[in-house]
Amino acid sequence: MSCPGMVFAFVRSLFRDRAALAAENLALRQQLAVQQRSGKRPRLRRRDRIFWVWLTKLWPGWQAALLIVKPDTVVRWHRQGFKLYWKWKSSKGRKGGRPKVDKEIRTLIRRMSRENLTWGVPRIRAELALLGHEVSRSTVWKYIDRSQRPPSPTWRSFLMNHAADIATIDFFTVSTATFRVLFCFIVLEHSRRRILHFNVTANPTAEWTGIQIVQAFPYDSARKFSSAGQRQDLRGGVLRQS
């Protein structure tokens, strides 16, 4: 480092708090230990990666002291740690996969769909419920007999014919530095492909979602169809099956 650079670093250190100086000193010492242990090419172990992932959460100026790898590499380590954490949390105390549907129910679904060509998934599911079989919509859709059903219009044709009356409503998740999950609610207009409304929450309840729909479709601007392909009324912020 040149003389002016050393002077600048000294003056800057006078105006920094002790916590930041301690964090920078710790980061430099850790990198020095890695260099002495590895030689010319630094070889980081798992504990070194964990150290830098936690330092990014505790110290905002960590990028200025990072020399042995790029900041994008540390961000990638954090994402990998996030995936491993939630994989462990979701699999803890649970058996993998859904329980298999009984053969009797699978046969009954195929028979209903084959003998009643006008019945859709909701009708077959309702008839199964009357017989005491509670199954999901996806299960009925998976096992219906499609061999004798007339071809239906494609999803692309439906979107083109009804683009002005369709709105897409969905959630997607964003991970934070502390391994929390934030749920992002978004409403898209199909005709102009623009965002009508969005919001973020850590607890997406039905009441909160209803409020977002009211804010997205004020007055008489509600769409008649959702992106799921079912006719629905979105007025008043409540999804009601017609």
What would the keywords be for this entry?
242 residues, alpha+beta, 3 domains, four-stranded mixed beta sheet, two-stranded antiparallel ribbon, 10 helices, 6 strands, 14% strand, disordered C terminus
Please describe what this structure looks like:
This protein has 242 residues and is an alpha+beta fold. It folds into 3 domains: 3-91, no CATH class; 103-143; 159-241. Helix content is 49%, strand content 14%. It is built from 10 helices and 6 strands. Strands 3-2-1-4 form a 4-stranded mixed β-sheet, covered by helices on one side. A hairpin with a 6-residue loop joins strand 5 (232-233) and strand 6 (240-241). Helix 3 (46-58) packs across helix 5. It starts with a helix and ends with a strand. Mean pLDDT is 76; it is low at 227-242.
Write the layout of secondary structure elements.
Layout: H1 3-14, H2 18-38, H3 46-58, H4 62-65, H5 71-91, H6 103-115, H7 121-130, H8 137-143, H9 155-161, E1 166-175, E2 181-189, E3 194-201, H10 206-216, E4 225-226, E5 232-233, E6 240-241
Helix pairs in contact: 3-5
